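Tutorial, part two.
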Amino acid sequence: MKERVNIVFVVLVYRNTQDLRDFFTNFMVENSKVIVVESFYSESCTLEFESIAKANSSDFISVPNKGYGAGNNKGCKYALEHYDFNYLVISNADVIIEQFCEPILYNYVNSIIAPKIINLKGKNQNPSSPFKPGKLLENIALWLYKGDHTRLIWLYFAMSRIRKSVFHCTSWISRRIFSAHGAFVIIPYSVIRSLYPLYNEDMFLFNEEEHLGRLAALNGVRTYYEPRIRILHKEDGSMKISSVNEFERMKQSFIAYYNYWNLLSSRMPSKTLSEAWRNSPPICAIRRKSASRP
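Running the prediction step on this input gives:
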């Protein structure tokens, strides 16, 4: 029989064991279970990660290092096989949960929840994409990546920042977004069941958020920004875009994302992805006295 918990945390780790120690030091969510998923680096790291997990009464699995999407897909599968839960949180290890009020979760039915994620430089990382990426914007990104324009890629990110600024200026009207930042995303059980696998494993480290956003929209699932849940993300906040290795990973992931969704769009002319995004059912506000499954 599956163990019953309210929230399952899938925490993907790679190499850095100190982040996982810090995660557990600050972890205070009741009626929850943590599944530590290690993207394999070395035998010594595996032993240390497993020891940390067991010391904190958490489950541990080690998988081949095939990136963010592959590791989290494995963690979600493990959660579905072993636990009966209401919500699943996909979380980085390098986060501190500063504010987490469980009753807030019950205001969302069949919706992905994107909390306020602040990095060490004070930047709000959510939403990942406030609006559905337009064809023009994606074609510009494709041209930049395919042409190896490492010094011009900042143009694409500048346009993305402008879109985020527009959203935060108007979020008092609607907090609906297109995709949630992957450092900490909350997903109801019903959504996990309908969308699994969540990620395209051909994408190693980037654009997984946009893939999930499109997958959710296609299946009538909305995503909402929820600033009353607050997460500190301890990354340095300064991705080195000029790094050839970094750029190549971004290029590979974006092209895999672009090809997948453009091929799918060409096969479903009667219902475009933009129509799915517009017509997905609205949020339903509910009040629950108990943590029953959505």
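Residues 236-244, 282-294 have pLDDT under 50 and may be disordered. In part three we will examine how such features are distributed along the chain.
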